Amino acid sequence: MKILHLIYDHVDNPWVGGGGAVRAFEIYRRLAKKGHEITVVSGAFPNCRDGNVEGIEFKFLGTPRNYYLSVFSYALSAASFLKENFSDYDVIVEDFAPWNPVCSYRFQDRKAVFLQLHHKEGMEILKRYLILGLPFYILEKTYPRKFHRVISVSEATARKFKLRNTYIIPNGINLPKSSQVFKGDYILYLGRIDFHNKGLDLLLEAVRNLDVKLYIAGRGKDSKLLQKKIHGDTLLSKRVKYLGFVSEEEKSRLIENCRFLVLPSRYEGQGIVVLEAAARGKPVLVSNIEELDYVVKNGFGVSFEKTNPADLREKIKFLWEREDLLRELSHKASKYAKKFTWDRIADKYEKLLLSHLQT
Predict the structure, then answer these.
(1) Which of 24, 59, 112, 262 is deepest in the core (most CB within 10 A)?
(2) Contacts of 8 (CB under 8 A, 6+ apart)
(3) Does any domain span residue 29?
(4) Which residues have C-beta within 8 Å of that of residue 281, sequence separation ≥ 6?
(5) Do 210 and 120 lie in a common domain?
(6) Number of domains in the chain
(7) Strand 51-53 relative to strand 2-6: parallel, antiparallel, unpaired?
(8) Are 154 and 269 in contact (CB under 8 A)?
(9) Which CATH number is 217's domain given?
(10) How crowded is residue 109: how many other Cβ atoms within 10 Å of its Cβ?
(11) Are residues 210 and 322 in the same domain?
(12) Domain co-membership, 332 together with 347
């Protein structure tokens, strides 16, 4: 099976480097080992290089000059690449973002074409960009309806888009070798540094007057803004430590030694980092958005009222002081995470694509 996957993001992209890129890499490196031919087309960023990584052919399109030029130039270049090369592939998968549609639906009568959904921003687009966001808001509502086949990472995301013929294939994790749980002396945010999407503004406001330590790890387009916020505030500089981008080994160590993970997102997909924390027996504090309600339903975390820093502050304080509850949540966390391994996810993904091959 020859697969073409179109996704702006890449695991090494300094501006994004999110869960969609991790998902694509983890699934396709497993499918490559089974003999499938995989090409992933992503947006250009500084120092990117075309080449083969673990059996996956990566190709970067657009300009690496800056984030916004990269995003929009990728859409134009990827659409052109698809038009010229679609006949070389059996399956085409397009990761959806309203900022860079590639219009792969044009080929779905001749090829097995899938749209991959992670999350829906909805009104957050207009709140963030006002009238300038209107075209992207409309595109997010209308574009997915053009596809006959859609893959969603969660039932919650599928419900928000209100689409038929949607297949649910969640994200996965690599289970840790050790399941030993440590009582940490800090709380941890781990992920993309995007103030609005990930709610980092809420998190900083919440911990500013709390006697706790917060470690923030990751990279993204708002990295410099985060550093400015921390260093420009005496209270935050005492409580918050920004670690920047960390290796996989360091990420594992940070999760294992934190007291609990916090993910205060305004909108989200399934949240791979939530599963990674759960696999290491760490409770999770999340915003009460529908996509993350599985954390509370499965008993390994608590939620706070979305966009409410005062409630986030109270929930951080509550969890910090309740060691008995943390132990209970920890046991349920590790039990839940065992259901989601990349091996299982890749097998399910492969079966879906094979079942739609056109003869």
Answers:
(1) 262
(2) 16, 42, 43, 70, 71, 74, 75, 95, 97, 99, 100
(3) yes
(4) 179, 181, 330, 331, 333, 334
(5) no
(6) 2
(7) unpaired
(8) yes
(9) 3.40.50.2000
(10) 9
(11) yes
(12) no
Same domain, 247 and 214: yes
159, 192: one domain: no
Task: Name the residue range of residue 207's domain.
Answer: 187-337
Within a domain: 182: no
In a domain, 181, yes or no: no
Residues 141 and 238 in one domain: no
Query: In the predicted model, what is the mean pLDDT of residues 47-64?
Result: 97
CA–CA separation, 106 vs 226, rounded Å?
Answer: 41
Alpha carbon distance 143, 255 (integer Å): 37
Query: For residues 169 and 340, what is the distance between their CA atoms, to the nearest angstrom?
Result: 10
Interior/surface letters 276-292, b for 16+ CB within 10 angstroms, e for the rest: bbbbbbbbbbbbbbebb
pLDDT tens readout for residues 256-297? 999 999 999 998 888 899 999 999 999 999 999 999 999 999
What does the alpha-carbon distance between residue 72 and residue 156 come to, in Å, rounded to a whole number? 28
> Which amino acid is present at 160?
K
C-beta separation of 166 from 158 below 8 A:
yes
Owner of token pair 């920047």: 244
CA angle 287, 298, 160 (to 5 degrees): 50
Burial class (CB in 10 A: 0-12, 13-18, 19+), 319: buried
Could you tell me if 10 and 71 are in contact, meaning their C-beta atoms sit under 8 angstroms apart?
no
Ranges assigned E (strand) in 177-304? 187-190, 214-217, 240-244, 260-263, 284-287, 301-304
* Through-space distance between the first and last CA atoms of the chain, rounded to whole angstroms: 12
Report pLDDT digits (tens) over 288-339.
999 999 999 999 999 999 999 999 999 999 999 888 898 899 989 988 998 8
For residue 257, how many C-alpha atoms fall within 13 Å in the half-sphere facing its CB? 10
Helix (H) or strand (E) holding 316: helix 309-321
- Do 43 and 248 form a contact (C-beta atoms < 8 A)? no
Same domain, 228 and 346: no
72 and 13 together in one domain: yes
CB 223 within 8 A of CB 189: no
Quick check: is 179 in a domain?
no
